[in-house]
Amino acid sequence: MVECTDLFEETLNREVTEYLELTPIYDETTEGEDYEYIASAKLKFKCPVCENKWTTAHGTVKFVYYLYFKKRILFVQVYIYQQRCLPCNRMASFKTYDDEAVRLSYDFVDFIDRKYFGGENDEERPQRNSRAINNHKVLYCDACERGICVYLRRLRREQRRQTEEQKRETQDIS
Ligand SMILES: [Zn+2]
Ligand SMILES: [Zn+2]
């Protein structure tokens, strides 16, 4: 997990100013609970040892935030979960696509707007296209290891849907 708030700061600052002051520096002034917003992104990885490169459609990005409502200050820190290289098992460095960082920042601000300020549900922005859909290496993913990976969430959603479909089919037969 790597802190990379600066990749999102420009867009967040632009989007948030209407009603909030954004403070991407976390310190002891935040009292109470921190909240999390988890999102899926397409990410690029590169191994520092063997130069192996790959992309994932299931990159996990975590916004940790605290909203100081009275003063309208939003504390934000953004983290990206790494993946390990398949041949040499080393933690790889990553890059975000610029349009993905912008999209995630928009979506996060929408989420805050809906949750705390009664905002309308904006049209969902699609994630950058990827062919690497079913190629997630659970054992090489830091987010999977910590049980919060967007890939695991998607699997669980699909399993629920399948169980419900099976239930419906059984009901149809009986
Ligand atoms: Zn490698
Ligand atoms: Zn994962």
TrEMBL record:
Q: Does the keyword Acyltransferase apply?
A: no
* Predominant location: membrane
Q: InterPro entries, per this entry?
A: R-trans_p, ZAR1/RTP1-5-like_Znf-3CxxC
Pfam families named among the record's database cross-references:
Zn_ribbon_3CxxC
> Is Transmembrane helix among this UniProt entry's keywords?
yes
UniProt GO molecular function: olfactory receptor binding; zinc ion binding
Q: Which UniProt keywords apply?
A: Membrane, Metal-binding, Transmembrane, Transmembrane helix, Zinc, Zinc-finger
Please name the GO terms of the biological process aspect recorded for this protein, alphabetically. Answer: protein insertion into membrane; protein targeting to membrane
- One term under GO cellular component: membrane
Where found? Membrane
Q: Where is the 3CxxC-type domain?
A: 40-147
Membrane topology value: Single-pass membrane protein
* Name under which the protein is recorded: 3CxxC-type domain-containing protein
Protein source organism: Stylonychia lemnae
Q: What is the lineage of its organism?
A: Eukaryota, Sar, Alveolata, Ciliophora, Intramacronucleata
